[in-house]
Design a protein that fits this description.
The complex is a heterodimer. Chain A is built from two helices and 13 strands, in the order βαββββββαββββββ. Chain A is mainly β. The relative contact order of chain A is 0.22. Chain B is globular, with a radius of gyration of 17 Å. The chains are: A mainly beta, B mainly beta.
């Protein structure tokens, strides 16, 4: 049994002018969305015949044990078999807002992932799979814990602290550990484990779809504009598809740091 | 309800802050004057059209434009340093002429040749920047400000932050070269607004 505590600190609240302007419209539009939400597990997959049983099956579980800050603020389900894909002794989540701080948590206790057994060589088990995020005016932090998770032949679980570490079998399955997704409205979702089944063509294929375990989401909370902080977590470039507040233009992804242009081959002044 | 009010408040704060930024060193033009903070009709700008060419006549800089994305470390890509005369447009910024800050990058030097922006520091307020666009139109900008600033103090908000009118940024390196770090210490940044 090994244990990995993965912390990906992600500061999402950015510079006052920049971030607020960029997100003013989405947050106004999403005025009724809860500040925080979480769920224990969800699966939306189609399995090929022979993976779990003789026939192929399609599974759409929706969100299991969902909670959000607008209520119910906590939820739990005992003895959850996700149609044999995943089993767990308990799945729970909570999302609470207190004193302007939002905290969301999701956890799964004593989980097994029979769906990955053909690839792993044995049924992967974990004592705890959990994620949590906290949002304050200073930003959003998120982390995941995967205690005692062994994925066998699929790959060694990364021990680093970075979010979005991936292991898997090309063309068959991708497992994203401590997946962190920043949304356009500034909110952040952390999934402790995201299993993507990549299709039915490659050897050893299982099927297609997604299984998400222990998902927590935190929205930005009202910030008193303070020190500019650069977002460290990339978002998917959504260039022209999603116009921001001020019309069709604007920068959709702010690069990190300063551009490096030139190799100094003609530089005449050198730093000490 | 409180969240809705926050969105409104944030928009106000952001508008004010943006004007403060884009107004630095530049005479506020009528287009930049907010009539009424939220209900003001934004400057429409041109439709989206990918930029294909760059001309800065005052420094004799002429180049086609290639689209640039992000490196794995999330810094902005630059054109190949082996082709220092090639400028590029950051494709997660608006196309020049659209509302917002369109970002164009070019090398100061590379491969022992002068780069497209070798003379960018010579650009003066009032100079013209002409961008040719894929739809055949041209977007012409007037330079409002030229800055040389240390990379470690790179003005992310001023360069990439939202603007209420179509603007352009031309960026290259400058200042002393830190041979150990293989990096110039400064950036030269030219700011311009679309001629109307």
């Amino acid at each position: 049994m090994r244990s990995a505590l993965l912390r990906g600190r992600t500061l999402v609240v950015a510079a006052p002018a920049l971030a607020l302007l960029a997100t003013a419209a989405p947050s106004a539009v999403a005025a009724d969305a809860p500040a925080g939400s979480a769920y224990g597990a969800s699966a939306s997959v189609s399995l090929l015949a022979g993976v779990l049983g003789d026939k192929g099956i399609s599974v759409e579980t929706g969100k299991i044990a969902p909670s959000n800050t607008d209520g119910p603020t906590s939820a739990s389900v005992v003895d959850v078999p996700l149609k044999g894909l995943v089993t767990a002794k308990a799945v729970s989540s909570s999302a609470k807002k207190t004193d302007g701080k939002v905290a969301s948590k999701a956890s799964i206790v004593d989980a097994t992932l029979p769906v990955l057994a053909p690839l792993a060589g044995a049924t992967p088990k974990a004592r705890v799979i959990s994620s949590e995020c906290t949002s304050t005016p200073d930003g959003i932090t998120a982390s995941s814990e995967l205690a005692g998770l062994d994925l066998g032949r699929i790959g060694k679980l990364p021990v680093g602290t970075a979010p979005n570490q991936k292991i898997g079998v090309p063309g068959v399955v991708q497992v994203i550990v401590n997946e962190q997704i920043k949304h356009d409205d500034g909110s952040l979702t952390v999934n402790a484990l995201h299993v993507k089944l990549l299709g039915g063509k490659a050897a050893g294929a299982l099927g297609s779809g997604d299984i998400v375990l222990a998902s927590s989401t935190c929205a930005k909370v009202a910030a008193t504009p303070s020190t500019p902080t650069q977002p460290t977590q990339p978002t998917q470039p959504t260039a022209p598809a999603k116009p921001p507040a001020q019309g069709p233009g604007q920068v959709t992804v702010i690069p990190a740091g300063a551009p490096e242009t030139g190799d100094g081959s003609l530089a005449t002044v050198f730093a000490q | 309800m409180t969240r809705r009010r926050f969105g409104f408040f944030a928009l106000l704060v952001a508008l004010v802050a943006t004007f403060a930024l884009s107004g630095c060193g530049a005479e506020p033009t009528p287009a930049q004057q907010p009539a009424a903070p939220v209900s003001a009709a934004p400057v429409v700008g041109l439709a989206r059209s990918v930029p294909v060419s760059l001309d800065v006549p005052s420094i004799d800089a002429h180049s086609s434009l290639v689209p640039l994305g992000l490196n794995a470390d999330k810094t902005v890509q630059v054109p190949p340093v082996t082709e220092p005369l090639q400028a590029g447009w950051y494709s997660n910024s608006p196309t020049p002429g659209q509302v917002g800050p369109a970002v164009v990058l070019g090398h100061i030097d590379g491969n022992h040749q002068k780069g497209i922006f070798w003379r960018l520091h010579e650009v003066k307020k009032g100079d013209q920047v002409v961008i040719g666009r894929q739809d055949g139109s041209k977007a012409t900008f007037t330079v409002t400000k030229v800055d040389q600033i240390a990379k470690k103090e790179f003005p992310t908000e001023a360069v990439y932050g939202n603007t209420t009118d179509p603007q352009i940024r031309l960026i290259t390196c400058g200042g002393a070269f830190d041979a150990a770090a293989h990096s110039y210490l400064d950036n030269i940044i030219v700011y311009g607004t679309l001629n109307t």
